[in-house]
Amino acid sequence: ERAKKAGKAAVKGEKKIEKGLKKKLSADEKRISALKGKMSKMKKGSAEHKAAIKKLKGLQSKVKKAKAAEAKAVAAEKKEEAEVAKDKKRMAELKAKMAKYKKGSKEHKAAEAEAKKIAAKMKARADKEAKEIEADEAKMAALKKKMAGMKKGSKAHMEAERKMEALAKMMKRRAERAKKAGKAAVKGEKKIE
Q1: What is the maximal distance between C-alpha atoms in the chain?
Q2: DSSP state of 25
Q3: Would you tell me which of 10, 13, 29, 160 could form a disulfide with 25, CB atoms 3.0–4.6 Å apart?
């Protein structure tokens, strides 16, 4: 009996993993799918079908714009990550350089000054990231509160839903970056919680 239960739990776990691996559809993509299902039952050329086509094109353009905006944001984040990696590499080079020179020498002082400059730049970047995470969480809370008073399915609700999805994706990427970096941004997240 225990083996049977364990087997069922393993199957449930596998199903959850498979479900997680599937692409998560946005609210608009779900609406598109539902609309296509309805359209298949409509008479082609009817006023209802033409209206549905118009609505479908509108939804598809919104999905396309959202994906383009997300791709642009991801590209900007990758550029930022490359700068961070470059700074880390330079910092390591400077530390190695400083180890070669006698403390107090002209070369050691120059390397130390540059290292301090880079460290300050990296700290400022991490602090900025922490503030952005806090601001995003405040935006998310405000959106949730605003949506609570809206009629589900209304234009305002759908627009707020789109904003919330985009914000959630950005927050997830930021949290992953902060976790990777293990800097002040993670400390800021812990303070918020």
Answers
A1: 86
A2: P
A3: 29
Q: Three-state SS for 181?
A: helix
Q: Of all helices (H) and strands (E), which one includes residue 153?
A: none
DSSP 8-state class, residue 131: H
Taking CB atoms within 8 Å and a gap of at least 24, the contacts of 102-107 are none
Of 80, 82, 74, 94, whose CA–CA distance to 124 is shortest? 80
CB 46 within 8 A of CB 22: no
CA torsion angle for 117, 123, 124, 127 (degrees, to 10)? -170
Res. 15: pLDDT tops 60 = no
Q: Which of 59, 84, 58 is nearest to 184 (CA)?
A: 84
Q: How many angstroms separate the CA atoms of 190 and 184, rounded?
A: 10
How many Å apart are CA 141 and CA 130, to the nearest integer? 17
Q: What is the pTM of this model?
A: 0.58
